[in-house]
Amino acid sequence: MESIFALIFLCVTGTHVSCSPGPLEDVVIDRYDIPRVCPREVQTGDFVRYHYNGTFTDGKKFDSSHERGAPFSGQVGLGRLITGLDRGVQGMCVNERRKVTVPPHLAYGSIGAGSVPCDVIPADTVLVFDVVLLDIWNTEDKVQTRTLSKPESCKRLVEATDFIRYHYNGTLLNGVPFDSSHSRNGTYDTYVGMGYLIKGMDEGLIGMCVGETRTIIIPPFLAYEEKGYGTVIPSQATLVFEVFMIDLFNPKDDIAVVVKEVPKTCTRKTVVGDYIRYHYNGTFQDGSGFDTSYQRNSTYNTYIGMGYVIQGMDKALQGLCIGEKRRVILPPHMAYGEKGTGDIIPGSAVLVFDIHVIDFHNPKDLIEIKVTSKPKKCNLTSEVDDLIQYRYNCSLMDGTLLYSSDHYENAPITTLGANKVIEGLDEGLRGMCVGEKRVVIVPPHLGHGENGAKGVPSSAVLHFELELLDLQKGVPDGYMFVWLGDSPDPLFPAMDLNKDLSVPLEEFTAFINIQVAEGTGRLRPGMDADGIIKDMFNNQDRNRDGKIVAEELKLKVEEDSDKARHEEL
Q: Which segments constitute the EF-hand domain (predicted)?
């Protein structure tokens, strides 16, 4: 039809117009297909884009935009179309189909149209146009936005200079799709308000929330204008985008922390250099998860502030209490950046971690002791080599009970300093009175270490509740008997109770028992006393004749003295 419009002028300039009298008919419009929803109708001054078939009343076709593969574009009501068609498209909706019958005086009149001679459209011909409206816009149009869904809470809106990730479906105004991020299985990632997008999209994205779905309608002069875009977006096309906002951040963002739960007592907070064990759920801003320690049934263990985790997490783990729960939001430049990691975390993704601190410690930590109950009289306290009996409950710092002496018939008995229990517990049991109760916190390097133990996680800080039930003072390692003061001097006459110059086993046993009873000597606790005394006797009975004489005792004393001097040298 454009070619026909162009040839009208040639025919008009070379032909005399003769007007015949008679009544003039108006345009006849048959709206045979009207869409259910019509948000806008064509008005004078609007620009339209439509396809048409032009025929005579006998059905013979004289023109078709369909056959040319290019719809007609023009402005309505300003004389740029034949008058009948100008009137015929007014009030149309996008996707409406109508048949417009144009009488000759509102078409090409008595002149006709076409090449010389003017025989394409003969004079005084009624024209029938079958029109489908594809697009409508006006130079006064603005970007239109309509929110389809929005999360209940929206703490942050898209602003200029933000970096966003979103999915979209792009269609023309008549619903014909031209592009979709979903089909590529990847978000569209870009800065907003910095010229990376068409002007209308830059404007339409402002004010969105993460998780919001919005329709954005962009007029052509704020989209691809007359040029269009390749073969998918025609010239002067209105664009419709359905956008789902996945992510948003600003390059100036720092980590964001939301404290969810803090324990009533917090005597210490994490610092750089501490070793921490924590559980976490990792999600994106739209709530979809990418990782969780709970599913593995194992905490994440790491040093803080030493580069073992991503920068944002290193910072977020500082200042935490044992048992604290917090949400931390990490911008991409403090997480995995533009590249992301593997197939799990896409490039430029904001990460959200819900953290629960199980415990933490420092490699330089000593045990912590808190006495919870102590007898008024405490004349005797436990120390290395003592034989003790104690009650205990052992838990993780989150209160999870690992094991307890109450689970056994008898409370445990051990010798302090004999490497019978973990180092931290051994230290925690020292200096106690019988009946005393205390809480002892044992760091992993004084507990079960990085390897853990049966039922004890790797690098776990242990919480012991202790009660000393019994205490027997001990003797140094390697000794069976010690003097608690000066030994008799000379020793043999004191041992020779019947003064017959020899000491058999029975007499030796009686002598040692007298020393223990009077508190001047002590046998190794926890062992059979008669067995210890017999071993002591055999050690002194050098000739194995069943008795000790002064000479044997003298030789033994000299040997021990010589051995001691040799060790000193």
A: 528-563
